[in-house]
Amino acid sequence: MKNPRTLIIPTLPKGRREWADNSGVMFHACFTLLADCIENEHLLDGSIDWMANKQSRKAKAEIEALYDWWKKIKDDEDWYPMTSSDIGKSNKATEDNFKWSRWVNVNEQYEEADRMLIRLIKVRRFLYV
Fold first, then answer.
1. Angle (nearest 5°) at CA 107 between 103 and 108
2. CB 23 within 8 A of CB 80
3. How many domains would you assign to the chain?
4. Which residues make Cβ contacts (< 8 Å) with residue 61, sequence separation at least 6?
5. All residues at 6 or more sequence positions from 11 whose CB lies less than 8 Å from its CB, including other chains
């Protein structure tokens, strides 16, 4: 039986397993919990009557949309925002070494992550089985 007080976050970026910024840990933890509800606790597989009312139907659609988005970006190393500390670790500031698209889009990525976290918080009451 899995200890409910232990959260394993397998999607934290590779190479950062020993240290990760709290903002990244929070983001990955929240979406790890969503994925766990769907994949391991079978949230969408019938224990809840999702057709019971408009609120339930809307929540199910939102949960599915968030989960689909998470599946798309969770392993995309280019999506995870690069920080200024990452830049200081490189010997050579080239597009190939840094994947500058991440650095250029860091604000956009944080804003997108914030929007998705807010959406997730709004449906968290439905994350039970």
1. 100
2. no
3. 1
4. none
5. 28, 31, 32, 74, 75
pTM: 0.77
Q: Are 64 and 43 in contact (CB under 8 A)?
A: no
Within a domain: 10: no
Question: Which DSSP category does 9 fall into?
Answer: -
Domain that holds residue 116: 22-85+93-124
Distances (CA, A) of 8 to 11, 17, 70: 9, 12, 16
- Domain membership of residue 73 (yes or no) is yes
Give me the tens of pLDDT residue by residue for the chain, a chain 129 residues long: 577 788 888 887 665 455 677 888 899 999 999 999 999 999 999 788 999 999 999 999 999 999 999 999 887 766 665 554 554 454 444 444 444 445 556 778 888 999 999 999 999 999 986
- Counting other chains too, the contacts that 71-78 makes at CB distance below 8 Å and 24 or more residues apart are 71/35, 74/11, 74/31, 74/35, 75/11, 77/13, 77/14, 78/102
Q: Assess if residue 38 is contained within a domain.
A: yes
Structural domain contains residue 63: yes
Q: How many residues does the chain have?
A: 129
